[in-house]
Amino acid sequence: MQPLDVLMSPAEQRLAGAVLLDPNREFGTVELLDRMGNSRSAGSALLQRWVDGGLLRERRVGNQRRLSANPEFLLFPELRRMALKTVGLAQPLARALAPLATRIQQAFVVGSVAQGTDTSSSDVDLVLVGDLNLFDVSPALDAAQLELGRPIHVNLYAPLEWASDTDPVIGALREGPRLDLMEALHAEAR
Amino acid sequence: MPRPAEYDALLKIGSFKPAASSPASIAQFMRTAQDMLTATAAPMPDSARFLLAYEGMFNVVMAVLEFHEVRPGDAGGHRATAIQRVAADLQLTAAQQSVLARLHDMRNRVTYRAPLPPIGKADADAMQAVLQALLPAAQALVTSP
Asked: pTM value?
């Protein structure tokens, strides 16, 4: 069971993962219905519910409906954070890294994404600690990069390097804001 | 040896430009790359080892391009294209090509955009390994009849 399962249906989670990360991005109805993977009628009803509730904005271009997340929605920051920690970012990254899970001691996102100041074009700064090398990690992340549509920068550290008390950068990474991926990684690896 | 068709396609779209080819110049690119690989064996910070190996890699790329009588175009992005083209031609594995693209991006990021987080041991090890893989493959190509 994934954390969002207690709050949202699978279709709602997929919709949240698609729209909440980037409120500047508009989607066509068909694209969102495809992503939700629901029946057309159930998917359309869900979209309408999110529009009526104010979480989705609607713009008409000719006879086309363009939908995007509404950053003015009261709970938008909290929902976006929830999506980041689950379906929007953590799960795609965890899925990509799952084959390497036994060699990963720590996995987390730092930088603007973890601080909540990222934009749709911001890079994802990933830190991995473990018995890893780039030849295993890089191809795995290429797939996640395509799925997320954002560049992923990865910094690998061996456990001994990570434990260093003398490196100020590692100290800053250890102390700074982070979006932890270990729970998602364990869930994907099960 | 006729150059692969992809080089002509990249010439047509301006990613590459025609260049004169000189055996002495190609040999010098290869010597420099080998010197840089040899130098990476000495104790030094990871960032220095990474940049040495990166420059060695790019000397290999330039040797192969000159062998095929081309050079990278002047606009941005053509260096990345050249690296990808040569890596594929020298039959690096998919994982090696993925790492090389990532490390080229990292070199640009730490050089032109943000030095933090800095280059680490894993990056330097990987760049060194890629250069080690490229050199013999390039040597076989540029000394082929």
From this structure: 0.82
What is the extent of the structural domain holding B94? 21-140
Distance of CA B128 to the CA centre of its chain: 12
**Confidence (pLDDT) at A115:** 84
Residue B29 forms part of a structural domain: yes
**Closest-CA residue of chain A to B118:** A169
The sheet with strand A64-69 has its strands ordered as A27-28, A64-69, A56-61
Residue to substitute from A100, A138, A169, interface B, most B β-carbons within 10 A: A138
Partners of residue B116 in chain A, C-beta under 8 Å: 169
Tell me how many domains chain B contains.
1
B55 domain-assigned: yes
Provide mean pLDDT across the span B88-92. Answer: 96
Task: Assess if residue B11 is contained within a domain.
Answer: no
Domains of chain A: 3-74 (1.10.10.10), 89-189 (3.30.460.10)
pLDDT digits (tens, 9 = 90+) for A95-115: 999 999 999 999 999 988 888
Angle value at C-alpha A99, between A154 and B127, nearest 5 degrees: 40
